[in-house]
Amino acid sequence: MTASPVTAPQPAFVTFSEKLRLMKSNGLYRSYFPTAHMSTSPGQTLHEGEEIEVWCTNDYLGLSQHPELIRAQIDSTARHGTSMGGSRNIAGTSTTHAELEERLARWHGKERALVFSSGYVANFESLSVLLSEIPGIVAFSDENNHRSLIEGIRRSQCEKRIFPHNDVDALEEQLAACDPDQPKLIVFESVYSMDADMSPVSRICDLAERYNALTYLDETHAIGAMGPTGAGLCEAIGETRPTFVQGVFGKALGTVGGYVAGPDTAVDFIRSHAPGFIFTTSLPQACMDATLKALELVQDGEGLRRRLTDRSLRMKAALRERDIPFLDAAHHIIPVMIPGSERVRRVTDLLLEKHRIYVQPINFPSVPLGTERLRVTVPPYRTDEQIDGFAQALQECLANA
After folding, report:
1. Which of 299, 331, 365 is the C-terminal boundary of a domain?
2. Cα dihedral 167/169/174/176 (nearest 10)
3. Which end of the chain has fewer CB atoms at under 10 Å, N or C?
Protein backbone atom coordinates (compact mmCIF):
# COMPACT_ATOMS: atom_id res chain seq x y z
CA MET A 1 0.00 0.00 0.00
CA THR A 2 1.52 3.29 -1.10
CA ALA A 3 1.27 6.49 0.85
CA SER A 4 -0.98 9.23 -0.49
CA PRO A 5 0.95 12.00 -2.20
CA VAL A 6 1.36 15.24 -0.25
CA THR A 7 -0.77 17.86 -1.91
CA ALA A 8 0.08 21.54 -2.05
CA PRO A 9 -1.87 23.79 0.30
CA GLN A 10 -5.00 25.30 -1.16
CA PRO A 11 -4.78 29.05 -1.94
CA ALA A 12 -7.12 30.05 0.88
CA PHE A 13 -5.04 28.20 3.45
CA VAL A 14 -1.85 29.76 2.12
CA THR A 15 -3.48 33.12 2.83
CA PHE A 16 -4.33 32.03 6.38
CA SER A 17 -0.79 30.79 6.98
CA GLU A 18 0.75 34.02 5.76
CA LYS A 19 -1.55 36.15 7.89
CA LEU A 20 -0.86 34.04 10.98
CA ARG A 21 2.88 34.29 10.30
CA LEU A 22 2.54 38.07 10.11
CA MET A 23 0.62 38.18 13.41
CA LYS A 24 3.34 36.16 15.09
CA SER A 25 6.12 38.31 13.68
CA ASN A 26 4.61 41.57 14.94
CA GLY A 27 3.67 40.22 18.37
CA LEU A 28 -0.11 40.25 17.85
CA TYR A 29 -0.64 36.47 17.83
CA ARG A 30 -2.54 35.27 20.88
CA SER A 31 -1.90 31.93 22.53
CA TYR A 32 -4.03 30.02 24.99
CA PHE A 33 -2.83 29.79 28.56
CA PRO A 34 -4.24 26.49 29.89
CA THR A 35 -4.98 26.64 33.61
CA ALA A 36 -6.79 24.74 36.33
CA HIS A 37 -8.25 27.17 38.87
CA MET A 38 -8.46 25.90 42.44
CA SER A 39 -11.55 26.62 44.51
CA THR A 40 -9.57 26.03 47.70
CA SER A 41 -7.09 28.79 46.78
CA PRO A 42 -8.90 31.79 45.23
CA GLY A 43 -6.75 33.66 42.77
CA GLN A 44 -4.40 30.71 42.29
CA THR A 45 -4.29 28.35 39.34
CA LEU A 46 -2.24 25.41 38.11
CA HIS A 47 -0.27 25.83 34.89
CA GLU A 48 1.93 22.95 33.72
CA GLY A 49 1.77 21.52 37.23
CA GLU A 50 2.94 24.71 38.93
CA GLU A 51 0.82 26.98 41.14
CA ILE A 52 0.70 30.58 39.94
CA GLU A 53 -1.18 33.78 40.81
CA VAL A 54 -3.76 35.25 38.40
CA TRP A 55 -4.06 39.06 38.33
CA CYS A 56 -6.27 39.59 35.27
CA THR A 57 -9.48 37.80 36.22
CA ASN A 58 -12.93 39.14 35.36
CA ASP A 59 -14.20 37.30 38.45
CA TYR A 60 -14.13 40.64 40.26
CA LEU A 61 -15.62 39.47 43.56
CA GLY A 62 -14.16 35.96 43.58
CA LEU A 63 -17.62 34.40 43.53
CA SER A 64 -16.76 31.66 41.03
CA GLN A 65 -14.95 29.91 43.87
CA HIS A 66 -17.41 30.80 46.61
CA PRO A 67 -18.50 27.74 48.61
CA GLU A 68 -22.20 28.61 48.42
CA LEU A 69 -22.15 28.91 44.62
CA ILE A 70 -20.24 25.65 44.30
CA ARG A 71 -22.69 23.89 46.59
CA ALA A 72 -25.69 25.34 44.71
CA GLN A 73 -24.39 24.12 41.36
CA ILE A 74 -23.41 20.66 42.64
CA ASP A 75 -26.76 20.14 44.37
CA SER A 76 -28.66 21.33 41.30
CA THR A 77 -26.64 19.07 39.00
CA ALA A 78 -27.48 16.11 41.22
CA ARG A 79 -31.19 16.97 40.92
CA HIS A 80 -31.44 18.12 37.31
CA GLY A 81 -28.45 16.73 35.41
CA THR A 82 -25.80 18.44 33.31
CA SER A 83 -27.86 19.78 30.39
CA MET A 84 -31.32 21.09 29.55
CA GLY A 85 -31.24 18.90 26.45
CA GLY A 86 -32.75 21.54 24.17
CA SER A 87 -33.29 25.17 23.34
CA ARG A 88 -35.38 27.52 25.47
CA ASN A 89 -38.39 26.87 23.20
CA ILE A 90 -37.97 23.07 23.25
CA ALA A 91 -37.93 21.84 26.87
CA GLY A 92 -35.04 24.17 27.74
CA THR A 93 -36.77 26.71 29.99
CA SER A 94 -36.40 25.53 33.57
CA THR A 95 -38.19 26.97 36.56
CA THR A 96 -34.87 28.58 37.51
CA HIS A 97 -34.56 30.33 34.13
CA ALA A 98 -38.00 31.83 34.65
CA GLU A 99 -37.31 32.88 38.23
CA LEU A 100 -33.93 34.38 37.35
CA GLU A 101 -35.40 36.48 34.53
CA GLU A 102 -38.12 37.80 36.85
CA ARG A 103 -35.55 38.76 39.48
CA LEU A 104 -33.24 40.41 36.96
CA ALA A 105 -36.09 42.54 35.64
CA ARG A 106 -36.99 43.69 39.17
CA TRP A 107 -33.31 44.33 39.96
CA HIS A 108 -33.05 46.81 37.10
CA GLY A 109 -36.55 48.22 37.44
CA LYS A 110 -37.57 46.89 34.00
CA GLU A 111 -40.63 45.04 32.83
CA ARG A 112 -38.86 41.97 31.48
CA ALA A 113 -35.45 40.30 31.21
CA LEU A 114 -34.10 37.60 28.92
CA VAL A 115 -31.13 35.28 29.62
CA PHE A 116 -28.63 34.44 26.85
CA SER A 117 -25.68 32.06 26.66
CA SER A 118 -23.20 34.96 27.03
CA GLY A 119 -22.99 38.73 27.27
CA TYR A 120 -21.67 38.89 23.70
CA VAL A 121 -24.69 37.00 22.42
CA ALA A 122 -27.06 39.15 24.50
CA ASN A 123 -25.69 42.32 22.89
CA PHE A 124 -25.35 41.01 19.35
CA GLU A 125 -28.77 39.38 19.19
CA SER A 126 -30.70 42.11 21.00
CA LEU A 127 -29.27 44.98 18.97
CA SER A 128 -29.43 43.23 15.61
CA VAL A 129 -33.09 42.30 16.15
CA LEU A 130 -34.19 45.65 17.56
CA LEU A 131 -32.43 47.75 14.94
CA SER A 132 -33.55 45.54 12.05
CA GLU A 133 -37.21 45.81 12.98
CA ILE A 134 -37.61 49.56 13.58
CA PRO A 135 -37.93 51.23 10.15
CA GLY A 136 -35.54 54.11 9.54
CA ILE A 137 -33.82 53.90 12.91
CA VAL A 138 -30.37 55.43 13.40
CA ALA A 139 -27.90 53.93 15.87
CA PHE A 140 -25.52 56.26 17.71
CA SER A 141 -22.55 54.28 19.00
CA ASP A 142 -19.67 55.33 21.28
CA GLU A 143 -16.38 54.77 19.42
CA ASN A 144 -15.03 52.66 22.29
CA ASN A 145 -17.97 50.28 22.45
CA HIS A 146 -17.35 46.56 22.87
CA ARG A 147 -17.16 44.41 19.75
CA SER A 148 -20.45 42.71 20.59
CA LEU A 149 -22.24 46.08 20.41
CA ILE A 150 -20.47 47.04 17.19
CA GLU A 151 -21.29 43.74 15.48
CA GLY A 152 -24.94 43.87 16.59
CA ILE A 153 -25.31 47.27 14.97
CA ARG A 154 -23.49 46.14 11.81
CA ARG A 155 -25.64 43.04 11.48
CA SER A 156 -28.81 45.14 11.42
CA GLN A 157 -27.51 47.18 8.46
CA CYS A 158 -29.25 50.26 9.85
CA GLU A 159 -27.89 53.77 9.51
CA LYS A 160 -25.27 54.44 12.18
CA ARG A 161 -23.30 57.35 13.59
CA ILE A 162 -20.18 56.89 15.71
CA PHE A 163 -19.50 59.60 18.28
CA PRO A 164 -16.14 60.29 20.00
CA HIS A 165 -15.75 58.44 23.28
CA ASN A 166 -17.91 59.97 26.04
CA ASP A 167 -18.23 63.21 24.02
CA VAL A 168 -21.73 64.38 24.90
CA ASP A 169 -21.44 67.58 22.84
CA ALA A 170 -20.53 65.63 19.71
CA LEU A 171 -23.37 63.21 20.36
CA GLU A 172 -25.82 66.09 20.64
CA GLU A 173 -24.64 67.52 17.33
CA GLN A 174 -25.29 64.18 15.67
CA LEU A 175 -28.72 63.84 17.27
CA ALA A 176 -29.69 67.38 16.32
CA ALA A 177 -28.77 66.73 12.69
CA CYS A 178 -31.41 64.00 12.43
CA ASP A 179 -35.08 64.45 11.66
CA PRO A 180 -36.81 64.95 15.04
CA ASP A 181 -39.29 62.20 14.19
CA GLN A 182 -36.68 59.69 13.03
CA PRO A 183 -36.27 56.71 15.44
CA LYS A 184 -32.94 56.77 17.29
CA LEU A 185 -31.03 54.43 19.62
CA ILE A 186 -27.96 55.50 21.61
CA VAL A 187 -25.67 52.54 22.38
CA PHE A 188 -23.01 52.88 25.07
CA GLU A 189 -21.39 51.23 28.09
CA SER A 190 -21.32 52.28 31.73
CA VAL A 191 -17.76 51.15 32.53
CA TYR A 192 -15.18 50.84 29.74
CA SER A 193 -12.82 48.16 30.97
CA MET A 194 -9.82 48.83 28.75
CA ASP A 195 -9.57 52.53 29.60
CA ALA A 196 -11.02 52.30 33.12
CA ASP A 197 -13.39 55.20 32.63
CA MET A 198 -17.14 55.58 33.02
CA SER A 199 -19.76 57.11 30.77
CA PRO A 200 -21.82 60.21 31.64
CA VAL A 201 -24.97 58.12 31.81
CA SER A 202 -27.33 60.82 33.09
CA ARG A 203 -26.18 63.40 30.54
CA ILE A 204 -26.70 60.88 27.74
CA CYS A 205 -30.17 60.09 29.10
CA ASP A 206 -30.90 63.84 29.15
CA LEU A 207 -30.04 63.98 25.44
CA ALA A 208 -32.16 60.92 24.76
CA GLU A 209 -35.17 62.65 26.30
CA ARG A 210 -34.47 65.90 24.46
CA TYR A 211 -34.13 64.23 21.06
CA ASN A 212 -36.68 61.44 21.52
CA ALA A 213 -34.12 58.61 21.44
CA LEU A 214 -34.05 55.15 22.98
CA THR A 215 -30.96 54.06 24.95
CA TYR A 216 -29.13 50.73 25.21
CA LEU A 217 -26.65 50.55 28.11
CA ASP A 218 -24.08 47.78 28.56
CA GLU A 219 -23.42 47.42 32.31
CA THR A 220 -21.16 44.39 31.92
CA HIS A 221 -18.23 45.58 34.05
CA ALA A 222 -20.35 47.37 36.65
CA ILE A 223 -22.76 44.53 37.45
CA GLY A 224 -22.03 43.21 40.94
CA ALA A 225 -19.27 45.73 41.53
CA MET A 226 -21.23 49.00 41.73
CA GLY A 227 -24.45 50.18 43.35
CA PRO A 228 -26.05 49.51 46.76
CA THR A 229 -27.23 46.06 45.60
CA GLY A 230 -24.69 45.60 42.81
CA ALA A 231 -27.06 46.48 39.95
CA GLY A 232 -24.40 48.63 38.29
CA LEU A 233 -23.49 52.24 37.65
CA CYS A 234 -27.11 53.30 37.11
CA GLU A 235 -28.05 52.08 40.56
CA ALA A 236 -24.96 53.76 42.04
CA ILE A 237 -25.99 57.17 40.68
CA GLY A 238 -29.76 56.70 40.95
CA GLU A 239 -30.37 56.66 37.19
CA THR A 240 -33.41 54.70 35.96
CA ARG A 241 -33.93 56.04 32.44
CA PRO A 242 -31.96 53.72 30.09
CA THR A 243 -34.47 51.88 27.91
CA PHE A 244 -32.45 48.67 27.79
CA VAL A 245 -29.82 47.42 30.24
CA GLN A 246 -27.47 44.55 29.44
CA GLY A 247 -25.48 42.58 31.99
CA VAL A 248 -23.51 39.38 32.44
CA PHE A 249 -23.05 36.55 34.92
CA GLY A 250 -19.53 35.59 33.83
CA LYS A 251 -17.74 38.46 35.56
CA ALA A 252 -18.61 39.67 39.07
CA LEU A 253 -21.40 37.09 39.50
CA GLY A 254 -18.94 34.25 38.93
CA THR A 255 -20.99 31.95 36.67
CA VAL A 256 -21.78 32.05 32.93
CA GLY A 257 -24.29 33.78 30.67
CA GLY A 258 -25.67 37.21 29.92
CA TYR A 259 -28.99 39.03 29.76
CA VAL A 260 -30.88 42.06 28.55
CA ALA A 261 -33.66 43.85 30.46
CA GLY A 262 -36.15 46.38 29.12
CA PRO A 263 -39.74 46.98 28.00
CA ASP A 264 -41.93 43.89 27.97
CA THR A 265 -42.97 43.92 24.32
CA ALA A 266 -39.48 44.73 23.01
CA VAL A 267 -37.77 41.98 25.04
CA ASP A 268 -40.52 39.52 24.13
CA PHE A 269 -39.95 40.40 20.46
CA ILE A 270 -36.22 39.69 20.88
CA ARG A 271 -37.12 36.35 22.50
CA SER A 272 -39.32 35.50 19.54
CA HIS A 273 -36.94 36.56 16.75
CA ALA A 274 -33.26 36.35 17.83
CA PRO A 275 -31.62 33.37 16.06
CA GLY A 276 -28.84 33.15 18.66
CA PHE A 277 -31.48 32.71 21.34
CA ILE A 278 -33.91 30.47 19.49
CA PHE A 279 -31.47 28.03 17.88
CA THR A 280 -29.06 27.25 20.70
CA THR A 281 -29.09 24.88 23.66
CA SER A 282 -30.21 26.49 26.88
CA LEU A 283 -27.77 27.01 29.75
CA PRO A 284 -28.03 24.14 32.28
CA GLN A 285 -30.39 24.64 35.19
CA ALA A 286 -27.48 23.97 37.55
CA CYS A 287 -25.66 27.04 36.17
CA MET A 288 -28.80 29.09 36.64
CA ASP A 289 -29.23 27.89 40.24
CA ALA A 290 -25.64 28.93 40.94
CA THR A 291 -26.39 32.30 39.34
CA LEU A 292 -29.44 32.77 41.56
CA LYS A 293 -27.23 32.16 44.58
CA ALA A 294 -24.67 34.62 43.20
CA LEU A 295 -27.40 37.22 42.74
CA GLU A 296 -28.41 36.80 46.38
CA LEU A 297 -24.81 37.25 47.54
CA VAL A 298 -24.26 40.27 45.29
CA GLN A 299 -27.47 42.00 46.32
CA ASP A 300 -26.42 41.63 49.94
CA GLY A 301 -22.72 42.11 49.16
CA GLU A 302 -21.91 45.68 50.14
CA GLY A 303 -19.03 44.35 52.22
CA LEU A 304 -17.59 42.58 49.18
CA ARG A 305 -17.84 45.78 47.13
CA ARG A 306 -16.17 47.86 49.86
CA ARG A 307 -13.35 45.33 50.03
CA LEU A 308 -13.00 45.35 46.23
CA THR A 309 -12.64 49.15 46.30
CA ASP A 310 -10.17 48.99 49.18
CA ARG A 311 -7.99 46.40 47.41
CA SER A 312 -8.03 48.40 44.16
CA LEU A 313 -6.93 51.56 46.00
CA ARG A 314 -4.20 49.59 47.74
CA MET A 315 -2.89 48.37 44.38
CA LYS A 316 -2.95 51.88 42.90
CA ALA A 317 -0.94 53.15 45.86
CA ALA A 318 1.61 50.35 45.41
CA LEU A 319 1.98 51.13 41.69
CA ARG A 320 2.23 54.84 42.34
CA GLU A 321 4.99 54.33 44.91
CA ARG A 322 7.03 52.54 42.23
CA ASP A 323 6.30 55.07 39.43
CA ILE A 324 4.50 52.45 37.38
CA PRO A 325 2.14 54.23 34.95
CA PHE A 326 -1.54 53.29 35.09
CA LEU A 327 -4.91 54.80 34.23
CA ASP A 328 -6.63 55.94 37.42
CA ALA A 329 -10.41 55.76 37.62
CA ALA A 330 -13.09 55.53 40.25
CA HIS A 331 -13.63 51.80 39.97
CA HIS A 332 -11.98 48.41 40.22
CA ILE A 333 -10.17 47.93 36.88
CA ILE A 334 -6.55 49.13 36.64
CA PRO A 335 -4.97 49.39 33.18
CA VAL A 336 -1.16 49.43 33.52
CA MET A 337 0.26 51.05 30.41
CA ILE A 338 3.16 49.23 28.67
CA PRO A 339 3.25 50.50 25.06
CA GLY A 340 4.60 48.14 22.41
CA SER A 341 3.27 44.67 21.62
CA GLU A 342 6.69 43.08 21.98
CA ARG A 343 7.53 44.84 25.23
CA VAL A 344 4.22 44.06 26.94
CA ARG A 345 4.71 40.42 25.95
CA ARG A 346 8.25 40.39 27.37
CA VAL A 347 6.99 41.83 30.65
CA THR A 348 4.26 39.20 31.00
CA ASP A 349 6.67 36.43 30.07
CA LEU A 350 9.09 37.60 32.78
CA LEU A 351 6.32 37.83 35.35
CA LEU A 352 5.42 34.21 34.69
CA GLU A 353 8.97 32.86 34.44
CA LYS A 354 10.49 34.71 37.39
CA HIS A 355 7.56 35.30 39.73
CA ARG A 356 4.85 32.75 38.85
CA ILE A 357 2.43 35.60 38.09
CA TYR A 358 0.02 35.49 35.16
CA VAL A 359 -1.36 38.65 33.54
CA GLN A 360 -2.58 38.54 29.95
CA PRO A 361 -1.12 41.29 27.74
CA ILE A 362 -3.77 43.43 26.05
CA ASN A 363 -2.87 44.48 22.53
CA PHE A 364 -4.41 45.26 19.14
CA PRO A 365 -7.25 44.89 18.20
CA SER A 366 -8.54 45.14 21.78
CA VAL A 367 -6.70 48.45 22.12
CA PRO A 368 -5.05 50.74 19.51
CA LEU A 369 -1.47 50.06 18.50
CA GLY A 370 0.94 51.86 20.80
CA THR A 371 -1.42 51.72 23.80
CA GLU A 372 -0.72 48.14 24.90
CA ARG A 373 -1.33 47.43 28.56
CA LEU A 374 -2.03 45.00 31.37
CA ARG A 375 -5.58 44.95 32.69
CA VAL A 376 -5.09 44.32 36.40
CA THR A 377 -7.89 43.40 38.80
CA VAL A 378 -7.65 42.98 42.56
CA PRO A 379 -10.49 40.84 44.00
CA PRO A 380 -11.46 41.09 47.69
CA TYR A 381 -9.41 38.07 48.74
CA ARG A 382 -6.04 39.68 47.85
CA THR A 383 -3.82 40.55 50.83
CA ASP A 384 -1.53 43.55 51.30
CA GLU A 385 1.45 41.21 50.99
CA GLN A 386 0.22 39.81 47.67
CA ILE A 387 -0.45 43.30 46.29
CA ASP A 388 2.98 44.57 47.29
CA GLY A 389 4.56 41.41 45.87
CA PHE A 390 2.82 41.91 42.55
CA ALA A 391 3.82 45.58 42.30
CA GLN A 392 7.43 44.78 43.17
CA ALA A 393 7.60 41.95 40.65
CA LEU A 394 6.12 44.18 37.95
CA GLN A 395 8.65 46.91 38.69
CA GLU A 396 11.51 44.44 38.29
CA CYS A 397 10.16 43.02 35.05
CA LEU A 398 9.59 46.48 33.57
CA ALA A 399 13.21 47.33 34.32
CA ASN A 400 14.44 44.16 32.58
CA ALA A 401 12.09 44.03 29.59
Report:
1. 299
2. 150
3. N
